[in-house]
Design a protein that fits this description.
Five copies of one chain form a homopentamer.
Chain A: E1 31-37, E2 42-47, E3 62-68, H1 73-83, H2 87-94, E4 101-104, E5 109-117, E6 125-133, E7 137-142, H3 150-157, H4 162-165, H5 168-203, H6 207-239, H7 250-312, H8 334-355
Parallel strand pairs in A: 3-7
Antiparallel strand pairs in A: 1-2, 1-3, 4-5, 5-6, 6-7
Chain lengths: ~350, ~350, ~350, ~350, ~350
């Protein structure tokens, strides 16, 4: 289930800048993967301990240090100290409830955002990804193993892809682009759900659909919270004058910005559509109630008067006391007249109902 | 059907700038039409292969290269290479789900937008049109043959129209203007539907109307997504300081901007009106329910008490056991008194209902 | 009826700047009225043909050329050529669906706006008025004869009014002010309708009221579309640095701006109130439904159980077969006991309903 | 009653700047009160005629000229001429429907705003107050006698209050502050009404409450129209660079600005709450309908089947013709069995309803 | 109970800048706590009278003067005079209904905001906290004892925390940070309530839930009013160029700003969710009404026609008078046929209802 507000209380009262893991309790071992490359060479390995990646800070090659697991904050602190990451940014990395943000500290650029995964059945899995990149290193922090970066890895492994000829900024861009691209996948999935639900609501609305609509609504609230601040992040990135971002990366950042705008557009459209779903649901329910009422009214309107008529001829007025008392009862065709009256009343009312378009 | 989010997944994971066709699967042959003209001369032809248009890049005449079909991306790549179009713009051309945008690259100006066609019965057909224009060429990319540019073609073919005396920028403007003009046609058609529906909803609302309202709503969402970003596009165009846009074209661009504002105004008005339709529908439904309830209540309120009365005189109290038991039954005018009571109760209730304005 | 989108299709495909009349079909003769004045002299006449007013362009007196009828576009073209009005502005004059706008071309200032008339019974009549003013002439274009400028004419005819001592800019201001003043008259009329409707809705809502509400809503949409862009127009007018606008006219322009803001405020207030009307209507309807339900429930709840009781004593259990079968029937006071039971049940239920505040 | 749009028509067609009283018809004599003071001296008197205050224009003492009654426009014109107030500002003073505004004419500062009075039972009384202040005079125009300035008067009369040591700008500020302070009183009164109404709506909603809600809504619209433009007025006042406003008055103006923001905040909050009231009302109504339906359903569902059962045993099938015809009627315990069936059905349905939580 | 508008009337009419306590009546003694520290030393004590803290104004150590209780305004006035706090700021401190604000007076920085406490059962307790800090002192004013600063106190008491090495600005920041951190606790509590309520509303909506929803809504209005202006406050703080704020505190202020944005985001999300709760409630209610109607309709539709049938055979047509009168009554299997008809009608209707998905 997607909680809308991450538990923040654990860190309450601690000094600002204290690196405290705020998120689900995890016990998995933290894994550290390195991809180190330049135009011609490529090295990939899984590190034993965090200290092993320190040497890459000042190497001439581009190094991607990917850390799966931020619940062991000592890693973040050690890395932070060696790579000169500000205590507050270290805190941001460990706080999985943080809002997407972009910060240019001069020495490095810090970006934190949400990676969405439509894996699970009952919703969307959100993972916080923080990216720190300097002159020739990119450090990415994820909450756990498994990500949307496989395509980036494959591109790096190829012989002569563009990524191998460009710097750390382009790699960082490629990672963010992969995350944003994945938003489309998530939104497509939601779009399909919305369209299916819409058809179902018009034809056969159930009380359970209300829960589905509300779950969708919450999902959109959740996604919106994750994606909305990205507009600002992308804007800052696009406008940044940091030396860490090369001119030839700029068009890609502008392209990224446009993609994010499109994601936000789509999210807003879906919010509108989901609000519309509630209208359809309510209107379908009220339509059905209308139909129920019509059936009741038709039956009651026909048979209550007829019941009265039958009641009349079931009365025990003493026919022997007076010729005025229920003379119909002793008519030769009395019973047949009765049924004719019944048919006339019944058919007359049916015609009335058809005129009213209730039938 | 107008999908709200184009399938984007196919291109996921590819390197940014990879020219991948994102859109409906098509098999038609791509056609390439050339109109090459200056003040005095005019040449029109259909090219065999894309390379045949390369010669026009640096000719002194104005050349309009119109490419119907972007599913064969090799054309885009070849053209892009020869005319110096940036890889990311090539990607934009092939991505039919792209947001309208304006980009001034210095060498050329790139515009992408949606062409709407009210052709199909069940909705609006949207086609992506990208326009690239440089000093004396305009390249337009469409998804398939058939467009709204026939009037522009006819104007070019005339002997001395304004378009023949002006540059590539004016031609590009004329194409965009033709697309925007067509939005009015689409909106008029929707306007007619809205007005018809409104009359129908007030007089005789059906459950199907809800689907129509919702379909209209989605159409407006779709059109809005296509048109809204044009405001920004037109603004950029109006303010551009590119040398490719001549001063005498500027007033036309401002005029275009105003037209787009008017289209957006109309779209917003329609959105308001369509929301209003839902209110009318719901209120008509609830009004009808009210009428159903009234009929039920009138019939039941009259005949249930009367039924009770008939029931009373159908009771079998032993009149012989006591003079107090149902003495009415043996009255000479008992039955007539009964019917008088029935009439008095019935008419009294009818008067009551008329007072309540239920009749 | 107030159409929300003017038919625009007629002009589709024509070259931009083509002066095409877009509006209702008209056959009346176009009339041209001239008022030419300075501080001491005044001349008023109706011209035979458009060329007769050309002489006034460079006269030292202030000349007001009022053209009633824009369906004969040749007049506009001739005037335009002589007075140097840009082709696009000529197109704007002839397009009755144009958005209010202000344009300063250097030689002249062009303003187009809507004149509203509350004349007709079933709504508001809108007429497009375009005003072009230069150094000492004001040309006003109306769709047909009959306008809100009579007060301005009377002021000019007086011996020493302010208008006679000021330039063409003040005259143009006076015309616009007359149009804006008239908006208040239209809004007052709508305000009265809204207040009447409100009283009616609370006391006695009818299904027809829904149509009235919706018609009001559309009227407000229409008026809003006409008036909203005026804010921008007035803003531009207020800030203009054109030499055509004298310093001593500026305070009047600021005053005009404030009036327009007030009109817009009122329009927004009315929109709010009309939305509120729908709430009142729906709530009144649902209240009435509630009352209908109460009557049904009271009657049914009292008489259905009583009917059952009467039914019980109408059963034919064989009293002779067993003393346990319906012994009540042969009691001396059986029938009287029955009526007492009926009264007790009836009165008991009435007390119950009064407790529930249904009576 | 608070009219939302003041009749503006009377002044229609008059030349701009014509000083015409626009407001309720009044016949009271206009009164003119003078308070003239400096640090040591104080003089208070009621003037006979407007000309008597002319002498104070250039006196070195601070003079507060308070005019109760603006329906005699000759006073305004005479004052205006002597104190150099622009014709358009004179018009603003006389137009009681004017929007709050701030204008710095260089020679004097002109402010117009609404004074609200919660005096009357059925709503809020609004009075237009215009304040003109120059170097050492403050002229205030009110619609009639009776205002919220008594506290200011008392402060001036005291021996050594701050106001006596400061200039006309501080006095003007003190008057505006008194008006704004009074808004809080009005809003508190409305807040109490809202809270009472809320309690009533939850416990016992009546149809009349809808009218109360709507009246509150209109009141808020009215107050909002009066107060909203003050934000801008206060902003202009705070930022003004007029020499008429001393530096030591500035912090007070900023404080005033904050108060106005707080008033606007409260107004917005109340609007939200009043919208919420409608939701509560509608939901309470629908809840009550639900209860009505439940009672009807419980009674009908129990007694209609029982009525049928009684009807069965009231049938006249000829028991003598066949042993299969209604054999129950001649059973020894038939009637007792019947009542047992009645009890079983009745109790069974009651249990069913309790399970459904309808009881 | 959280009142939405603090009684402001008590101070009405007083001169601006008059320090008047506006808040709940209190009688507790005001307590004054001092923490005075530098890098190496620490002194904590409770002062007897306000004058005892005057000596700390110019000491080289950082001094935190915490005053619990602002109802004794003489303390504020004495402190204000000694520390040079402007009269208007003194007024702000005493006015518990003040809007959060930031003011840089040059000599000191003044901040006022709300401290929220989720202590009480029936809502949220709000307390006004004003913070004044100068070069080496921080004065905090609270309404009463008990606050959220214990963690800050503990950090100061530790041997070598960061706070001991930094100035008064950092201490002020730490206090504000503690208040903002506590907002998360409050919001988490509300979040839990919302989620619980949501589950309850879907499964079993009660009329009381409406009151809970409305109470939540009011709470959010209240919190929003308290928190929303903080965005501006934090923005001013972040951008301030005051010498009182050191460069090394700046990143902490930016971090604070982000936290506040996140709080506001969450508040907005909750407002959305609470609006959604009302939709769920209304839809659940209408769903239940639907179910009630269905039960009524099923029972009535089956048994009213059957009752009519039984009524028919209860009629007393004289079978002896004619063979056409109720011949069914004397059939051998008449009663059995009757029950078969009953079963056929009953089962047929049940099948009909199942088809309609009412069962």
């Amino acid at each position: 289930m997607t909680r809308l507000i991450k538990k923040h209380s654990k860190s309450k009262g601690l000094k600002p800048g204290a690196v405290v893991y705020v998120g689900e309790q995890r016990t998995e071992k933290v894994t550290i993967d390195i991809i180190d490359y330049n135009e011609t060479e490529l090295e990939e390995k899984r590190l034993e301990k965090i200290e092993d990646c320190f040497e890459f800070k000042d190497s001439s090659t581009v190094t991607w240090i990917n850390i799966n697991g931020i619940h062991d904050v000592s890693n973040i602190e050690k890395l932070g100290e060696h790579f000169g990451i500000h205590a507050l940014n270290q805190e941001d990395i460990a706080n999985t409830g943080h809002r997407p943000k972009f910060e240019d500290s001069g020495e490095y650029i810090f970006i934190t955002m949400k990676m969405l995964n439509p894996k699970s059945e009952d919703g969307i899995e959100s993972e916080q990804v923080s990216i720190v990149f300097g002159k020739n290193y990119v450090i990415s922090f994820q909450e756990k193993e498994g990500d949307v970066f496989d395509h980036v890895r494959e591109r790096i492994r190829k012989t002569k892809p563009r990524v191998r000829f460009m710097g750390a900024d382009y790699l960082a861009y490629a990672l963010i682009d992969a995350i944003v691209d994945n938003y489309f996948v998530v939104l497509e999935k939601i779009g399909d759900t919305v369209e299916e639900l819409e058809d179902e609501l018009v034809s056969n609305p159930e009380h359970e659909d209300l829960e589905t609509i509300y779950a969708l609504k919450r999902q959109m609230v959740f996604i919106r919270k994750a994606i909305w601040p990205l507009r600002e992040v992308a804007g800052s990135m696009d406008r940044t004058e940091s030396e860490l971002v090369h001119d030839f990366t700029k068009p890609y950042l502008r392209d990224l910005y446009e993609h994010i705008i499109q994601v936000i557009d789509t999210v807003e459209t879906f919010r509108d559509m989901i609000s519309g779903l509630l209208d359809i649901y309510l209107s379908s329910i009220s339509n059905r109630m209308n139909q129920v009422m019509k059936v009741l009214t038709i039956i009651a309107t026909i048979f209550i008067p007829l019941g009265f008529l039958a009641g009349v001829y079931g009365m025990n007025f003493d026919t022997s006391a007076s010729p005025f008392n229920l003379p119909e009862l002793s008519l030769r065709y009395g019973y047949i007249f009765f049924w004719m009256a019944v048919l006339i009343i019944g058919i007359g009312l049916l015609i009335f109902f058809r005129r009213k378009k209730w039938l």
